[in-house]
Amino acid sequence: MRAADDDERPESLLPLQPAAFHILVALAETDRHGYAIMQEVSERTGGAIRINPGTLYTTIRRLLDQGLLLELDDRPDPSEDDERRRYYRLTPFGRAVARAEVARLERMTALARQAGITPKRA
Amino acid sequence: MADRSPSTSIAVRVYDALLRCYPKAFREEYGRHMRNDFRSQWRFERAHGGVPLARFAVSVLADITMTAAREHLHVLNQDLRVAWRSLRKAPAFTVAAVATLALGIGATTAMFSIVYAVLLRPLPFREPARLVELVETQPRANIDAYAVSGPNFLSWRERAASYEAISALWEESFTFAEAGNPERVGGMRVSANLWSMLGVRTIAGRTFDTGEDQPGREQVALIGEGLWRRRYAADAGVVGRTVRLSGQPHTVIGIVPDDVGFTSGVDVWVPYAPDPRMPRGDRRLTVIGRLRPGVGVAQASAELDRIADALGREFPKSNEHYRARVRPLTEMIVSNDVDGALKVLLAAVGLLLLVACANVANLVLTRATARTPELTLRRALGASAARLTRQVLTESLVLGAVGGVAGIALAFAALQVARVTLAGELPRASTFALDGSVLLFALAVTLITSVAFGLIPAWRVLRTDLADALRPAGRVVSDRSQARLRHAFVIGQFCLATMLAIGATLLAQSLARLLSVDVGFPPDRLMVASINPSPDKYPTPDHAGAFYGRVADEVRALPGVTSVGLASTAPFGSFWSSMEMGPTRPTAGLPESLRTDWRIVTSDYFRALDVPVRRGRLFADSDPETLRPIILGESVVRRLWPDGVDPIGQRVWLGNGQVRTVIGIVGDVHQRTLDAGRTPTMYLPTTWTWWPTMTLIVRTAGAPAPLAASLRDAVRRVDPDQAVFDVRTMSAQMQATAAQSQLNARLLGLFALLGLVLGGVGVAGVLADAVARRRAELALRMALGATGRRVVREVAARGLVLCVWGLGLGLIGALWLGRALSGLLFGVTAHDPIVFSAVAIVLMGVAAIACWLPASRVTRIDPATALRGD
Lengths: 122, 870
Fold this sequence. Notes:
The complex is a heterodimer of chains A (122) and B (870). Chain A is α+β, with helices and mostly antiparallel strands and 122 residues long.
């Protein structure tokens, strides 16, 4: 586990891998445990994106190393099976990185739109 | 929400097992959560049926495979960075270890690669294990390999059932000419089936067809790759052209590779079938066969011996007491002395590898010991045993990898050099290449050494009680036993280095004796050159005599030439001829008959060589044909008439049936090799006959080498179509027979030098480490009044004691090793006391320097700083 270096700029970690981005987004509003993150991602994307435990925890491990997440103590989740689960929280640096990624994606999207590439609306 | 269904518990158990794919640390941190999340996921999918369970299972499996692999890479990457950082913090250690590894791996690999190329690499034939040589033997005379006579070869081919094919070969050199420009080339007459039997592909064209060795059809030739590249610049258009071989036209039908292993220097191959009317006792052919599948050498040998036994009864005159046997082709290629020498060199390089291993072990042990406190602390802070072990292991592996790469580069460079410099001295030099299996072996040996000795301290840290280990006093025990181990390595290194040094010195001494041996004539200022006039142009001895006479006159007229002689072969030449002879008609095996070398010479031969005439006179042109004169070397006379009968005027019988009269006795000379002693020789006059190839022996007033060009010109002035070959100084020809000894001495010298350097580095390293650890103690002693010189002496003495032990053991080892070496020595015994003492003195000098250098650093310790710092 490593705190973000003071001089580390959020942009230096871009682009984020999709799984990392989804995890950051899932934690934007509240702390969640692993399974809750998986559910949240699945719900937000209407089931299009599913993250399995392997991808989830290797990504979490890396995000922790990079100082984007914080690990909280285990506590039970009454809405699940009351087993003790470990919760994760977005750090300010993590939020900054997520923001930078959004900005990057917007710039890319803008570029594409300028070139006349727009998604078809159903 | 509880789901106790069996399918869920099975799925969770399987998932649990799969979690083992992840690195242990990761599993311990996240395994429980992953399992819980998976169970929740599984229940959810079962309950809601969003995705078919099978598809879900597959996606989970793929997820584990991918992420586990990535996680392992992450850990490895982390370990590598840590190892690299820690190695960079200890540059002296890293450089020494890498250099030692590179040297050990590089030298061993290069040497083994050479030996492999010369001796061990499978011959470039189809199924080489089934290829054998068939030889005649004479068990009564203890002769286990004779050449084969033509009629015997034909009988074998008819009667033996063990072979798919057998072929006869007969070496012969030719004057190769196309559009003038004659050149002397090595050649081989071979059965037409040889190439198909070997299974060698031509580079261009075809090999001989069946029956092309029959009379009338044999005017075809194959040329070797070397000649093809040299003379035709690798132009395949030469196939189909007509060339002249010693005057006879031959059509070139194909080009064959040079590396056929059992022979070298063959440029031309022509078909040959032995004439059944040849005398059965004329044994001159090499016979190679391919065994039928499933037939062993022993079985084939027994069959051949039965056939030879039968032939002995059928043809008692020529074949009585002769038997036959079969041996693997490889045995024929590697002569016993090359085999012995290369084995000694292999042993030497093996010793060098051991020295390198000891050095690496020592370095790694020193370093790991120095890191014991760090490792102990990290363990106390919670690092797992696996984690620490892996850390040490990774560092060793990084070291090994860097050293290995450097070693490969070194071996590669060494082989490039060897390919050029050894081309004349070892067969198949052009095929020297880095040998993968040897490289792996050397890498493995050094890596195992470095890893094993790197792990010893790590394991010790894991075994010891933490509380004990953290107390400074607790380290003393392990320090002491590791110091003992390091001392043992220094002793071992010095012991091996001593053995190498003694071996190298013995060989160097032997070489010096060999090169300064008295050969019976002054070899300086002598030039030799061979000529082989084409029999078409000079069909009779008279024609040849006239040709040689004019050549001798032309050469004698060259400035700087003092005398010119001719001989069927010069001393140290490539061709030896010998015959039975005696004071009565010789019969094989009788004690009074003697096998001596014979040479056909002009009288000027003795003047040019400057061989003393002991009694009688030399040949004269006026000698009548009926006199049949012969000149004998003095050792022949001593053997034939030991009781002092005056040999002049005596008659001798020769193996070819001639009876000749002794007219003169000359001094003995070395005819064959430097180490074989002087050769009993008889000399026949050129009035009897000329040999197809004659060698000019030219004595000069000044340095002979510059004469080579004008010598060729002189022959060309007489006849521009006749090639002059083997033009060289007598010294060069003489030293060529000692090439193997020179190679042995040079290589062993190199290994000994490397061994000595490594040994020196080893003892210096241990002492430097000891000085560093004992800084405070040494500083205190100096602060208390001990002089710097005295402390230096004491420290150096500790190292010297180790060296003396190593030296002593090495001397004993060298005594034992001497037995293996004695076969390679000339004029010096394997236990030569002068060599042993000289080596001991030099090695003690090296040891003194290696000990003094690190010890002298003691005086640079500033007592105040050292005492404060510890």
